[in-house]
Amino acid sequence: EVQLVETGGGLIQPGGSLRLSCAASGFSVSSNYMSWVRQAPGRGLEWVSLIFSGPTTSYADSVRGRFTISRDSSTNTLFLQMNSLRAEDTAVYYCAREWQLGRYYYMDVWGKGTAVTVSS
Amino acid sequence: EIILTQSPDTLSLSPGERATLSCRASQSVNSYLAWYQQKPGQAPRLLIYDASNRAPGIPARFSGSGSGTDFTLVISSLEPEDFAVYYCQQRSNWPRKTFGQGTKLEIK
Question: Can you tell me the distance from the alpha carbon of A77 to that of B7, in angstroms, rounded to the nearest whole number?
Fold first, then answer.
């Protein structure tokens, strides 16, 4: 079964750092494009970052320079290192697989999310 | 940045009725549009991709249409499990992507 499970969320003070993990099963994170998407409380969805099957990455303007996406093929896990956290980073963070449907890629499998709260 | 505006914000209908949800883009996204369903406490679920193609396993009562700037998601006959929040998402500047603000489909 294809599955994603996020962990690592919690309460963190402004300016702090946190690393989120996303454990995959049923497919390889190294062979697929993977994204992080977040949802602030009571708000809509915001794409955060993507990593291609190679080392190339992409970030939303709101997190570029503060967040880093990476993966570990040995544990089949995707990561999101979040530094210099701000109150506006408070959200549930989802990881998702980018899957080719037709000619293009869409997020077809999502984890259940992990909650991050940035507050003093 | 391309802005997606969904309407209405809330749609109140009864099971068995037809639901029509709209998504308008601030500039053309061709057919690079998806629809997702999200229930409380759950992750989003991909319903439609490329504006009109159902994702694997999605029931035939869900259909999408449109191109350019105006898109529609139709649920032909609402089932109790269809009451949720629906988001459209554009990928014309992929990997960057943006979502609409969502339409809440609630039981009347």
Answer: 37
Q: Which two tokens stand for residue B74?
A: 């139709």
Distance from CA of B102 to the nearest CA of A (A): 7
- State the Cα–Cα distance between residues B103 and B85, nearest whole angstrom: 5
- Cβ–Cβ contact B101 with A under 8 A: yes
- Mean local confidence (pLDDT), A56-62: 95
Rounded distance, CA B43 to CA B57, Å? 16
Nearest to A45 among B42, B96, B99 (CB): B99
pLDDT per position as a tens digit, B78-105: 999 999 999 999 988 888 899 999 999 9
Q: Cα separation of A69 and A48, whole Å?
A: 10
Which three-class secondary structure string do you get for A37-62? Answer: EEECCCCCEEEEEEECCCCCEEECCC
